[in-house]
From TrEMBL, chain A:
Name this polypeptide is given: DUF1806 domain-containing protein
SUPFAM superfamilies, A to Z: Hypothetical protein YojF
Organism: Terribacillus saccharophilus
Pfam family, one: DUF1806
UniProtKB/TrEMBL annotation, chain B:
Cofactor(s) listed in the protein's UniProt record: Zn(2+)
Highest rank taxon of the organism: Bacteria
Molecular function GO labels: hydrolase activity, acting on carbon-nitrogen (but not peptide) bonds, in linear amides
Gene3D superfamilies attached to this UniProt entry: LmbE-like
Matches recorded under InterPro entries: BshB2, GlcNAc_PI_deacetylase-related, LmbE-like_dom_sf
Organism: Terribacillus saccharophilus
Lineage of origin: Bacteria, Bacillati, Bacillota, Bacilli, Bacillales
Descriptive protein name: Deacetylase
Amino acid sequence: MKPIDLNEVQEQIDAFAGKKVFIHLETTNGAYANHVNEKAYNVGAFIRNAQVTYEHGKIKGAGAAYRVGLKTENGWVYAEGLNAWELDEKNRLLMAGHDREGRLMVSLEISETAF
Amino acid sequence: MEKHVVVIFPHPDDEAFGAAGTIAKFRQEGVPVTYLCGTLGEMGRNMGNPTFATRESLPEIRKKELQDACKVMDVELKMLGYRDKVLEFEDLSKVSDHLKELLETIKPTLVITHYPEYAVHPDHNALGAAAIDAVSRMEESTRPTVWAQAFMRGYQEILGKPDVVQDIRPFVKTKVKTILCHKSQAQGVLGNVTGEELTEENMEAIALEHFKEETFYTWNFENI
């Protein structure tokens, strides 16, 4: 993946707008957070292959932390803390936020085919 | 002497961190070892450091790392095809049946798995429970011994001292080599284990110093 360039990613988000797409949305601090640090909480959530159509989407932010919001007919898809992206060989838009050690903290992926 | 050892863990790299020294010892004695690996660690958050994997490329990368690790340990590998992080939500009686069928074919004399409820990760606890359930339902005459691994904080205060303590110092090089096969995970996990800042250069030395023994509890089937 490469560091997020706002304009490049916005272009990709626009390309999926109005289409029936599959979403992978995830946030995690790992299954060992509390094991490693007694004071930490294990928190995570993911949804894989949710089917949505968004009328428009935007990427906002600067530096190393970006937010993406996708406006759907009945609600929103939202992710914060994104800092890397790629369009993979299957033409899927992968966005992720990694911490200093390269560990995934958040992920938002958009694809026309199921993940 | 054991005739065949089966290791049952859910993630590629559980075998490396948990049992690679013990496995190497069995292989040196000429005992065949089969690793039944539950998932491909699809939901791991370590992506290499610097990051080289994505959520979508991680399964294939970890599959290759697992195959390489099994080559280093010289063990047979069977991948069970479950999905990382959601194993505990499967129908565990079906998982147990699946394992029982495999064990009845392989006919091990020893099974190594996680100690249910004392192995931190929900996948560890779930697959350990399914494995022990599978073994408990086998004919007593063909039932293998089970060594269960615990590492939850404070586990010894509740379970007592583990009765199986494997001195793995003679095999630590193989263990470290096995860990390093899991390139996407090694640095992140080792950092947690040793609490030290790790680089490609110091990783091996720190691991050599850190891993001296692997411990297990012999499962008591009388208590079921």
